[in-house]
Amino acid sequence: RRADLLGPDQAILRRHASDYIGQHGRQAAPQVQNILARLSLCRTRALGGRLYRCGSCQHQVNVYNSCGDRHCPQCGGAKRRSWLDRTAQSILPGVNYFQVVFTLPARLSGLALGNRREIYSLLLRSAWQAIDELLREEQGIRSAATMVLHTWNQRLEHHPHVHALIPGGGLSLDGKRWIKTRHKKHRRRKQPYLVDNIKLGKRFRQKFVAGLLQLHHRGDLTLATELQETTALEDWLKTVAASGWNVFIEPPPTENASPENILKYLARYMSGGPISDRRL
């Protein structure tokens, strides 16, 4: 494709990625350099391609291969549509769906950056355990969730959090009937209800802190020198646990609202980069 037909982000990469690496190669991590190279070469001759020829007029056109990188703005559209199609198949008709957001306190950001695989896995695991246990206790159901990890905010700062799409109902614990989630004390209220938000936040915090200590006992965490002693980590976690652990539950706007809008919202996290063409 000609440079003037590219999106602004792709055009910037084509024109300036090599100069950036030349000037800042020491500061750019190898994986960053590798990603920039792939994105710069996406759908160019360098990645190979296919030649299409019209059988009637013999017109020929080269279609070059995509890089397939998850950060690529050109490759995101097909992945987004594929994820939407697959996920939509698991949506149950006539069931309310809630978006629940689990966010780590800002004070854990440094620890997460030094232990990304361990902390992000623990974040997802703790969020699911918290909502699963509370739905069993409060509603007497076995539920499910589609969960998406997101690691930055709109200002492009490190901000690890999880978006979960959760049905407002599930099979009874004995598996014999479907139960719709309802508020125990206000069963006649019309607004859709999932679980108690405050209880969910406390349960999430409990699961995450316990999991973090287990990782430390197994020697799976890289810690600052002052936190390497178990007692020091425990004391620090007490102060962290006292800070805000945000869990936000967004109910559907109406009783019969379609979950499609939430799916489209989550799809952007699955396949989009941090800076859109519009923001550029």
Key terms:
280 residues, alpha+beta, 4-stranded antiparallel β-sheet, 3-stranded antiparallel β-sheet, flat
Summarize the main sheet: 4 strands, antiparallel
Helix content: 40-55%
Strand order of the largest sheet: 5-6-3-9
Q: How many angstroms does the end-to-end distance come to?
A: 20 Å
What is the overall pLDDT average? 86
What does this molecule look like?
Helices cover 42% and strands 17% of the residues. The protein is an alpha+beta fold and 280 residues long. A 4-stranded antiparallel beta sheet has the order 5-6-3-9, sandwiched between helices. A 3-stranded antiparallel beta sheet has the order 4-7-8. A hairpin with a 5-residue loop joins β7 and β8 (178-180). The protein is flat, with a radius of gyration of 23 Å.
List the helices and strands and how they pair.
Blueprint: H1 8-24, H2 30-41, E1 49-53, E2 60-64, H3 76-88, E3 97-103, H4 109-114, H5 116-139, E4 141-142, E5 146-152, E6 158-167, E7 169-172, E8 178-180, H6 197-217, H7 230-241, E9 247-250, H8 260-271
Antiparallel strand pairs: 1-2, 3-6, 3-9, 4-7, 5-6, 7-8
Helix pairs in contact: 1-2, 3-8, 5-6, 6-7
